[in-house]
Structures are given as C-alpha cells and as structure tokens.
Amino acid sequence: MTNSHYIAGRWVEGQSSDCISVNDPALGQPFAEFMAASVAQVDQAVAAARSALPAWKTTSASERAAYLRGFAEQLGQRREALITLQMRNNGKPRHEAEIDLDDAIATFGYYAELAEQLPAKNRDVPLAAPGFTARTRLEPVGVVGLIVPWNFPLVTSAWKLAPALAAGCTVVLKPSEVTPLIEQAYGQIADALGLPAGVLNIVNGKAETGAALSNHNGLDKLSFTGSNSVGSQVMRSASAQCRPVTLELGGKSAIVVFDDCDIDQAVEWIVAGISWNAGQMCSATSRLLVQDGIADALLPRLQAALENLRVGNPLTEEVDMGPLTSQAQWLKVASYFATAREEGLQCLAGGKALDRDGWFVSPTLYTDVPKHSRLWTEEIFGPVLCARRFASEEQAIAEANDSRFGLVATVCSADLDRAERVADALEVGHVWINSVQAVFVETSWGGTKGSGIGRELGPWGLSAYQSVKHVTRCLA
Ligand code: NAD
C-alpha cells in the first residue's frame, strides 16, 4: 500500500522521508509500510478542507444525514476486513474488534438522526424586552483538525468524524502512526459515497505530521484524543492562535467495590475493567478500592481470574486478551513492572512479560499499593491493576477522587442508594454502577481535571463542532 493519504478526494503517496511501519503485535513484526505525509501535504489537506467548506456547510441537514447513514452502511459492508485488521494491527480479540465496529456504525447512525433534527434547533428566542425579535442559528465551527490515538482507532475517529460532518464542518483526520490502515476505510467510504472532495481528508504520519496539523493556522478548531503530554502541546498551539480545542486525555480510574457485592460478579467487572483491550484504555479502572469486609475473600478469586485469562494471538487462538499494540507500549508496561519490584510492591498475579514472541504481558495485580507509588498515581495503559483497601464510604470517595485525572469510575454495591450517592460524589465524567465500560452513543464521553476539556458523544459531541449565532432584529 503506497497511496495512503486521502487529500482533496484523491489517494496520494506520502512525500515525507519518514517511513511508517505497520506491525502485527502478536508476532512483533511489520506487515506493511509506507511514507508519511509531508508538511506540504498537511497544508494541501487543510486547503482542500477550506475550499470544500462553503458548499458543505450549506448542504441540507438531511443530505448530510444521508451521507452519515452511508458511512454506517459501508462500515457494515466492510465488516470482516475491518475486524481482521483490528485483530492483526491492534491485537484485539475478535469479540472486542466486533464491538468497536458496531460502536462506529452506531455513532454514524446516531449523528445522522441528530443532523436531521438540526433545522428545528434554529428557532426564535423569546425576549422579555419589547421591540426586538431574536433567533438562534447553530453554525458549523468550520475546518477542524482531528488527531487520534491507536487504542480504539475506528471508534475514536467515528466519535469525531460523525458529529463534525453532521454539524457541517470539513475535516482533516490524522490517525495514529501505530494503526494507520484502519481509518483508511473512512476515506474509501467517502470515495464510494461520492462525498464531495475535500470534506474529509486523511493524512498519516507521526508526531511531525500531528504537529504540522495542530500548529496549522488554517484550522478553526482542533479535537485531540491522546496522551496528556501531547495534549498539552496541542493546547499550547491552540492557545497561540486563540482557537478552541477539545482534549480527550488520560485516566487513572477507580473501581470501588463495597462489601455487599456478589464476589463473582465483582471479579468479572474488575477483570473486564483492566483486561479489555489489554488494559490500553483511557477508561481502564486500574485502581481497585475494595472494602475491608470483602477484600480477603475477593483478592484470591481475582488473582485466579486474572491468571486464568487466555492470553494469545487473536488471529490464531481463542483469547480473552491479546498483546499490547506496540513495542513502545510493551516497554513502558515492562518499566512499571521494574518500578514495582524496586518499590517492593506485593504482586499477586503477573508482573512480567510473557516468554514468547510478540508484545505480550501477563494480567497483573498488585495489592496494598501505597498512595504515593507511581503505579497508583500514573496511567500505565496496560493490564496492570493496583488494589487498596478502604473502611468507609467517605474514605472510598476521598481515595477515588485523590487523582490528577477524572475520566471515569465504577461503583459496585447491592445498596443502590449508596451507589448513586457515591456516583454523585466522584469527580469524573462518567460513572458506571454495577457495570463496566458500557458506553452508549447517547451519553457523554470526556473527563474532569487532567482528563481533558470538553465532551464527545451525545448532543454534547455535536455541540463541540457548532458555533452559536444569534440574530437580533429591532422592530421599530
Ligand atoms: P499520543 O498522545 O502519543 O498520540 C496521539 C496522537 O497524537 C497520535 O496520532 C500521534 O501521532 C499524535 N501526536 C504525537 N505527537 C504529536 C505532536 N507533537 N503534535 C500533535 N500530534 C502529535 O497518545 P497514544 O499513545 O496514541 O494514545 C494513548 C493515550 O491516549 C493515553 O494517554 C490514553 O489515555 C489516551 N486516550 C484518551 C481517550 C479519551 O477519550 N479520553 C481515548 C483513547 C486514548
């Protein structure tokens, strides 16, 4: 594959001197490579989006909705290829790759519906003062840059593309260099649907390409999902140009288990919250807070459940968990295992890389982790669970909130009044009660504190790509 960038409705070869290798993490070997987009090609993509904007933003909302439904249908038609590619390039187990595809399809369908409702949102505003009328117009923000990571490539891009196109924005998408082939489907679908040239552009590349996009003065907004360190650079670029930015960043989320829980059920939720996508989730519930009364019974069962997870190559084995997606991530997780050994943490399960080819690690559990430990405070982005015990509801809330992040949390309790009370007290963007990682397109996604700025999904995800205009007329 050489024509890997979609600019102004055409597939083009990358003109940078930087080569992108696409790897199979289960083997630790590349299976494709191509040249990254050059800075000049990023310029061309932004220029294409700019020239497509006037026509695209004046298309009817129902026309845009039809395109979005087309994206949903066409994703479905590419089902097997997209599932296989996610398994091969991300290392996702089949059932997870299927869920990601279904999520992306649902996202395009949902924003098609919201697009159709847009004309009704442009309405008169009742005024208390006599002599004037006023009306609201929701307008597209304009040309937006979208920069995404590698852990849920189909989904994260759908969460940005669908509302941006629904709002009438034109876009330049920069996928992660770790998983650059998956989002090419969006360009192929744009081709198949006859989406006007320049409405959707895709430039692939590493940090240099991302920086060329986020620093570009031809954008009206930048929406970024990724790490806090890069998010902070993206925010600096936005601030230099006084331009709006949405940031979906990292997390170090808590799962709080009260002692009235069914232990087997709680173990299932805890394991899912740390092993799904091999723990490479911004929303991984990687800090387990377990109440004193249940801890001694729960921890051995949790240890057994983690040790029994089937870890392997999703393309050739029945697995519960695949490899980490990149060698860099594998090395990072291994460095936390080393830190845990240096800190003398008590390891109940895992704590090591698997002795086989590919970037595999064991599902890991550390217990009684001190609050000051780097493993308790930092986002690891792997299947590494740290546990602490608590006595009271107040203590659980205080410890859960004692983090610079604020993305999600899970509360497990048979006492639903308590669970709701704790949910209200947690300083995060999304709380699950007696469930884990259930994300619905109608609800919001995003965090408080260091986990970001803004919200995706739901009507909030659409608002992120809209500008509110009021027209006020004097009747005199
Ligand atoms: P990353 O920040 O390294 O990269 C994200 C994207 O930014 C990639 O496309 C990358 O090429 C690009 N990039 C790198 N340097 C850049 C620069 N200087 N300027 C502009 N763009 C640049 O993150 P990652 O390793 O790909 O993803 C993991 C991180 O993403 C984790 O911290 C995770 O928590 C976060 N994440 C957050 C959410 C959320 O919804 N809050 C969802 C998924 C992932």
UniProtKB/TrEMBL annotation:
Keyword Oxidoreductase: yes
Keywords annotated in UniProt: NAD, Oxidoreductase
Matching InterPro entries: Ald_DH/histidinol_DH, Ald_DH_C, Ald_DH_CS_GLU, Ald_DH_N, Aldehyde_DH_dom
Pfam entry (one): Aldedh
Record has Oxidoreductase as a keyword: yes
Molecular function GO terms recorded: oxidoreductase activity, acting on the aldehyde or oxo group of donors, NAD or NADP as acceptor
Residues the record marks as active site: E248
Domain Aldehyde dehydrogenase: 11-471
Family: Belongs to the aldehyde dehydrogenase family.
Protein name as catalogued: Aldehyde dehydrogenase
Source organism per UniProt: Pseudomonas putida
